[in-house]
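This section describes the prediction task in plain terms. A model, or a person checking by hand, is given the sequence of a single protein chain and must write out its three-dimensional structure as a string of tokens. No templates, partner chains or ligands are provided. The sample shown here is typical of the held-out split.
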Amino acid sequence: MKSDQIAILIQKFEGIRYDYEGIECWSAREMQSLLGYSKWENFEKVLLKAKEACKNAGSDINDHFPDVRKVIEAGKGAQQEISDIALTRYACYLVAQNGDARKQEIAFAQTYFAVQTRRAEIIEERLLQYERIKAREKLSQTEKQLSGILYERGVDDKGFAIVRSKGDQALFLLSTQLLKKKMGIPDSRPIADFLPTISIKAKDLAAEMTSLNVQTKDLRGQTPIEREHVDNSSAVRNMLLDRGIQPENLPPAEDVKKLQRKLNSDEKKVLKNTK
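The expected answer:
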């Protein structure tokens, strides 16, 4: 298939997209001709296979193949209402996968949706990576602010490290050393650099609560502040447990510094390719 034909098919496919109850969809009737099927009866067989694949994948068929009505011109200005199916992008992908690969249009669609699906997965993965990096940066800012507040109330750097360690033990029910050993974290690196996003945010919430309560309650000295941080970390832990999440049993995530370098490198490549 020539590049100009591919460009036309992409333009046609994206051009017949419409909004159905807030979701981008395509008319099965229009996809029929776009994918090279002259008879609706033949295309219906493909739709049935696609629905079965959807069901086998654990998805609700009605979410991706809802039955709708379509108004068409019946000649001499008359209009006729016929049955149709609103296909989500995922449904279109399944239709392409179950179509006749000997048809050029189907072969194109199979490749197109494979690329689009992978592209969506990459975008989603990238967004999650950015979220984790931002969460780590936010935790660093919160802990820096808390350290400043504690310093004004008689807690030095060594005391702050102890307060933070006690909080981690209350949150994860493991000492810093044991948690690092369990997660395979180097002794020289902060635990937070290897925690999943939800655990980073849990630590951040506990630190924010301690920062606020130390000032509200006018706490001074390491002992009462340490107790406050332990209580807040325990409260955050209980909240996670109530939702079935045991933070100490979550798998470690990729080193956040390595992840940041990788994303920075990818951005430079993108910028270079756009020049």
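For orientation: The chain is about 65% helix and 10% strand.
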